[in-house]
Write a structure and sequence with these properties.
With 225 residues, the chain is of the alpha/beta class. It has helices at 8-14, 43-55, 67-72, 133-141, 153-161, 172-181, 206-217, and strands spanning 20-25, 33-36, 39-41, 59-64, 79-83, 92-94, 99-108, 125-129, 146-150, 167-171, 185-187, 193-202. Helix 1 (8-14) packs across helix 7 (206-217). The longest helix has 13 residues, at 43-55. The radius of gyration is 18 Å and the shape is elongated.
């Protein structure tokens, strides 16, 4: 796949330090997982390798504990792989989505919950992560359950394990890892949201934006399933 060389103007906007600092959310296991110290694998990493190969630019992976943490430290990165969420468009330009992930709920085995639809009930407490795309969705769609916000997914999951909350929201593939570590944890049978994942730039980078739009539009470009 090729969309032509990267212009100098686009290069200055995209890699101002000489390397592309790519922010990834390591709490989203499908996008990025640290397999050994400083070594990452996942769909976001695969995308970064294609960019590096096509344009000959070194890529530095900048890991964050959540999507919200990425948004709080915009100065630390040049591009980020994030969930496409309308409320973020005042700060970010999203390139075409290259994949999707599913968000669901997890609970302990003794809970009567079996589907996400059952979880919007009076008296139920659902642990969520501040700034997450699925949190914004639940805030808009759930009317009865109480959403309890935490700063990172680890703390949100701990709230369920300790009994502080009845369920925890998260990416299905990430919560599946939790079930392997804790046999008592059970995933809901359904998902409450399918979330597009895309490369994002901060606003005000027109040359880099145009170059990436062309790259994603070239034959063989990554495309959402």
């Amino acid at each position: 796949m090729s969309a032509g060389p990267l212009s100098e103007a686009a290069r200055r906007e995209l890699v101002p330090t000489g390397r592309l600092r790519l922010a990834v959310n390591v709490a989203n296991a499908e996008m990025a997982t640290e397999t050994s110290p400083g070594v990452f694998e996942g769909k976001a990493i695969d995308l970064s390798r294609r960019l590096a190969a096509d344009w000959g630019i070194p890529v530095e992976i900048v890991p964050f504990a959540s999507g919200g943490a990425i948004l709080k430290d915009i100065a630390a990165w040049d591009a980020a792989v994030l969930a496409v969420e309308p409320s973020r468009r005042d700060r970010l330009h999203f390139l075409p989505a290259f994949t999707t992930v599913d968000a669901t709920l997890a609970t302990l085995g003794r809970s009567p919950l079996s589907t996400c639809r059952d979880a919007d009930a009076q008296g139920l407490r659902i642990a969520v992560v501040r700034g997450a795309a699925y949190t914004a969705h639940l805030e808009q769609s759930f009317a009865h359950a109480e959403l309890v916000a935490f700063d990172n997914p680890k703390d949100a999951r701990a709230a369920v394990l300790t009994g502080g909350c009845d369920a925890v929201a998260g990416i299905r593939s990430t919560l599946q890892h939790l079930t392997l570590e804790n046999p008592e944890v059970r995933l809901m049978a359904d998902d409450f949201l399918r979330i597009p994942q895309a490369l994002a730039l901060t606003l005000g980078k027109p040359h880099a934006q145009a170059a990436l739009e062309s790259w994603f539009g070239a034959p063989g470009a990554p495309a959402a399933a």
